[in-house]
Amino acid sequence: MKRLIVITLILLAAAIAITVVYFKNLSPPGVRTGQVMHTIPDNATAVFEFNSEKGFYDIFKGNQLLSAVIGKDKLTDLDTLRKLLIASPQLERFFEGQNVFISVHPSNSNDINLLITIPTTTDFKTDAFTNLNTQPNSGLSVTPVHNTVGTTYDVLVKAINKHFYITQKENNIFAGSFSKELIDQSILYKDDKNQNIFIPLPEQQNANSLANLYINYSQLTPLFDQIFKNKNTDIFKSFKLLPALAALTLNFKNDALMFSGFTTIQHNHTASYLNLFADQQPVVNHLKDIFPSTTAYTISFAVSDPVKFSAGLTQWHIKAGISNEKDQLFSKIKAETGVFLKPEFEHLLGNEFAVVTTRYQEKYAIVSVKDGSKLRPFMMNISTMTSDNIGQFNYDKVPFYLLGDAFSIFRKPYFMIIDNYLVLAATSSELTSYSDTYYNRKFISKTDQYNQFDNLLAERSNIAFFINFKNSQSIFKRDLKDAFYDVFENSNPSWKSFYAAAYQFSASDKNFYTNLCMRLNNTDTTATPIK
Predict the structure, then answer these.
(1) Which of 245, 311, 412, 522 is deepest in the core (most CB within 10 A)?
(2) Is 365 buried (19+), middle (13-18) or exposed (0-12) by CB count in 10 A?
(3) For 302-351, how does the pLDDT look when each residue is reduced to its tens digit (9 = 90+)?
(4) How far apart (Å, rounded) are the C-alpha atoms in residues 382 and 175?
(5) pLDDT band at 190 (very low <50, low <70, confident <90, very high)
(6) Cβ distance 220 to 209 under 8 Å?
(7) What is the pLDDT of the chain when averaged over all its residues?
(8) Distance (Å, rounded) from C-alpha 425 to C-alpha 412?
């Protein structure tokens, strides 16, 4: 009996050991995403995560994608730091196989601050940093700086003559930055374990991913405020107001950055306009086919059930406390014109509507309707006609109340109806210009580069933002702060190296499946090579 008990205990111990090894392999020590991300200050707008292994760097070697996004000089600085510090012979074994987290933080400067957070193995000792001083030709000079909250390591990277600051967080996690301001924030940051500023991917999915991108939409506004002169810029405005977190994985392509994953709405926060589309089904996007060739950027919406969307918009207006003003407007329209505008419009509303901004800073609302000929008399009755086809609304904020927040810029717009499209603009001349575009087929969808880009996008979505960087240049010159526009205009590569970017939401289980795509410009094969 005793022998049976002993054998049973041995077998049990063996089973436990095998189980531990098995799960250890499933979640290798280098992947501690949740722990690491809880140490990142909560003003981070985005976090880029990748595994610090040779294969990752080899994939992007000689590729313009990352340098175009963050800047050639900044990428060179990071690569120099990597080679001299975490890939140094003295430290490499402590960092090998660990995931690196590069987070983007707004600041008061004319630069975007980056924080690098990385865990080490459990046997790492902090004197390994100062020991680098004793290594000949290390290229680094490390000075420990002691203060009331711990020790910061001031690392002079001699090759670039810049200081890099490192501080130790809990669980052998280290944070570093070229910005002293940001590293001081990191030192003082106390994590709230009950608050998720990012939602990490499951460990197994993380292990199979080349790289991940996490986005906190609520922190987009401070970053945009740092970059743009005009804090009310409408570029990406609707997304900046969305209470949500995204976790996206990289799908590698040589000439494009492509991420896909989920945007999870924080339903315990105040709902934004975009929340309305989470209750719809994804729709095939057709409206983009008639955007002008001069399109700079657009925000497009698609609904599978227009009636349900209109009902949701009404509830959203009630919660926002503006339903009385809305009711008074439509009661006034009914009394003065006899038109029951709201139900008539909702009955004729199609599946797609969009706001388009051109390189000439024209703005159009383009709305698909079920029957343009039936909508025309209603629009004419609430407007003053300036020609047979063009009129101006007599009432303020009608598009806002009929279609929602994204259309608030059209206060008393001019309108025309072309086929089954209602088109709004600030002036009649802009509508005349679009009429020429429409009838002469001067659409961006007729260009090769656009179609190559569009082939990378999801066919169906509910919300889509598109920006053409060349057509947006004059707008950037007007709206970007000088230091940031100078980087856009004069750095090579830069964001100007991309043809376009798109950000798509497709409703999925009350949240959004998300696609992000940025494609480089086509190579000019006619250019004479430099010898």
Answers:
(1) 245
(2) buried
(3) 999 999 999 999 999 999 999 999 999 999 999 999 999 999 999 999 99
(4) 60
(5) confident
(6) no
(7) 90
(8) 9
Say if CB 480 and CB 472 are below 8 A apart.
no
Beta strand 173-177 with 162-168 is antiparallel
**What is the token pair recorded at 126?**
């902090």
**C-alpha angle with apex 239: 238 to 245, nearest 5 degrees?**
150
Q: Residue 394 is which amino acid?
A: N
Residue 524 neighbours by CB distance under 10 Å: 7
AA identity, residue 219: Q
* Contact call for residues 236 and 502 (beta carbons, < 8 A): no
Q: What are the counts of helices (DSSP H) followed by strands (DSSP E) for the chain? A: 20, 22
Task: Note the Cα 501 to chain centre separation in Å.
Answer: 10
Tokens read off for 248: 């996206």
- Of the candidates 104, 159, 154, the one whose C-alpha atom is nearest the C-alpha of residue 133 is 154
Q: What digits encode the pLDDT tens for the residues 60-112?
A: 877 888 889 998 899 999 999 999 998 999 999 999 889 999 999 998 888 89
Distance, in Å, from the CA atom of 497 to the CA atom of 392, rounded to the nearest integer, reads: 40
Q: How far apart are CA 289 and CA 266, in angstroms?
A: 33
